[in-house]
Design a protein that fits this description.
- The structure is a homodimer of 339-residue chains.
- With 339 residues, the first copy, chain A, is α/β, with parallel strands linked by helices.
- Chain A has helices spanning 18-25, 29-37, 43-56, 62-69, 85-100, 114-126, 144-148, 171-184, 200-213, 231-242, 256-268, 301-316; strands at residues 72-79, 104-109, 129-134, 153-156, 165-169, 190-194, 224-226, 250-253, 277-281, 295-298, 325-328, 331-333.
- Chain A folds into two domains: 2-169 and 308-329, Rossmann fold; 171-299, Response regulator (Rossmann fold), CATH 3.40.50.2300.
- The first copy, chain A, has twelve helices and twelve strands.
- In chain A, strands 2-1-3-4-5-11 form a six-stranded parallel beta sheet, with helices on both faces. A six-stranded mixed beta sheet of chain A has the order 7-6-8-9-10-12, sandwiched between helices.
- Chains A and B meet through helix 4, helix 5, strand 2, helix 6 and helix 11 of A and helix 4, helix 5, strand 2, helix 6 and helix 11 of B.
- Chain B binds a DNA duplex (16 and 16 nucleotides) through helix 2 and helix 4.
Chain lengths: 339, 339
Amino acid sequence: MKHPGTGPIGRGRQMTTIYDVASRAGVSPATVSRVFNGTKVSPEKVEAVRRAAAELDFTPNRAARTLRRRSAEVIALVIPDIENPYFTEMARGVEDVASEAGYSVVLCNSDSQLEKEQTYLQIAVAENMAGVIIATASPTTELDGILATGRPVVAVDRATRYDLDGVVMANREAAIAATSSLVEAGYRRIAYIGGPEDIDTAADRAAGWREALAGTQDDIETLQRFSTYRVEGARAAMEELLALPEPPDAVVAGNNLIGVGAIQVLTERGLTPPAFGVAVVGSLPFTTLSPTAVTMVRLPARHMGTTAARLLLERIAGDAQPARTVVLRGELHRASASR
Amino acid sequence: MKHPGTGPIGRGRQMTTIYDVASRAGVSPATVSRVFNGTKVSPEKVEAVRRAAAELDFTPNRAARTLRRRSAEVIALVIPDIENPYFTEMARGVEDVASEAGYSVVLCNSDSQLEKEQTYLQIAVAENMAGVIIATASPTTELDGILATGRPVVAVDRATRYDLDGVVMANREAAIAATSSLVEAGYRRIAYIGGPEDIDTAADRAAGWREALAGTQDDIETLQRFSTYRVEGARAAMEELLALPEPPDAVVAGNNLIGVGAIQVLTERGLTPPAFGVAVVGSLPFTTLSPTAVTMVRLPARHMGTTAARLLLERIAGDAQPARTVVLRGELHRASASR
DNA sequence: ATGAAAGCGCTAACAG
DNA sequence: CTGTTAGCGCTTTCAT
């Protein structure tokens, strides 16, 4: 008696299986499986199975399916900071297209720690997840392990040292637009606070700032600061800049949180924009300033998420073309008031 | 030949199994399993198994384990708005204690939609997840299904109509503290913008505001607005309030995002606090104001997450005591300047 | 302490 | 189109 009728008994109701449904519908388990997987089955049987399943309140067991198919309809999304709205917005994008396609997404917060990142990658393998979308904690992130399993991996926001599909922002261009906007508004000493030098997005944005200012400021290095991509670090950097013998009259913030930190400090000193120029590479989603007080180069985070998810789904479906990189451009929103 | 050595061959390396490890270590599969599950095994065999596993780069297959044990070491965290920092902060708390205990957490964004919420709950069952932590989209959220499976469920932030473990904020008290602080600072017409009336946190906070003002303002209803728990709704409500024949001189914001929306509108009109009083039930994590310009009653979101996770883990471990509710208090941070 | 063996619930050949 | 059957990789009695 290999598959006795289980039926609802005992605490925590026994799981009802495909066998229960099959016997109730008067068909074989295989047919039930087929109905739930969209393979051809005669209309009457489909109907019978559907009814039986409904009556028994049957939910297919994903673990069993995953074990058998050796692949779960789940994708891992690994990000360095779940508390950064940029990444949560991206997560929404991923989630939208993934769930549309019947995939769940597991959001993994690496907290910018290589070790946590590895742990999540391991879990992705252990759980037989179908693929991974990752914004790496560092360019040195190790992906050999997961790649060796044959799972598709898509890089978002940050490049990796692997030949992978990727979606990135046009970081240099965004920084140039932000900086130029400040120049045009009449600011003369434009500082820059960016993220950690070893993150490529940060390096590219810094380069953009430098390029936009080429030839106009001689002591450019003194006006450049590398912070973390977080509010606190930016505050410290901004304080430093203001304490300079010849302080700047404007600042370009390397990302949204840096923008927040910089503006906080400025506001505390009564230097509210446009008294002091501020341009942010990114959005200020929860700014309490008037939305038009600061220049922003909005980065299409959500779109980045949807694009990455689509690339990944294509790979999961078996697409084997060479790796693609999609570059997304930011959108300049000039502050309404200038100096 | 039931379990042939699989070994690394073909594209996307075959998964190495417990059998591969067993034969390489010269023990039985059961022993390998025991080693990975902490059951008693002689030191030499433990060593042999560990080495073999390392050499083969073995990762236990979670789907198989889940199927066999009928429970995955995964917990679902269902929240109504993944873009609200309050919930992401809470998620961090959950994640921290869960991963400490060897559990992964799957973050599910219901987007305040009952239907999405149900879908995620179904997935939790289908995936045999060990338990669920949920901030319901509505008090009418249906939990009978998941409860019938015997899985533990913990409610966070919002109460449910079920007899469950829960962690909530002291909402009424928080609103009273926020409002009183404004009264003490000398404001006279204190308005309130809260979340949807049918969410209990919103109702409780509104009640607190009303209570703190009892007897001091007669036309209290005209100063009360129900918005969504989001920035846009709050902006509209704030505009309305300012357009009143007898407009308020201060406002209590029912949550963080409402605070953001209200302050944005005020700032656009030159009514920066403290010219106009603002008190927020919640934090303004990314405020671009000086952090001391507005009164906040900080809600310990992260702590709520850690507490909920611990309650859930206890239930997963088999604890069967009656349902508990933990109430967390906010912390008042008075604005430094008054009217 | 260890091994043999029986499945967990589902899918995918393979027949028919 | 449908049923039979053999496992997916792991845990867990039950013996030894």
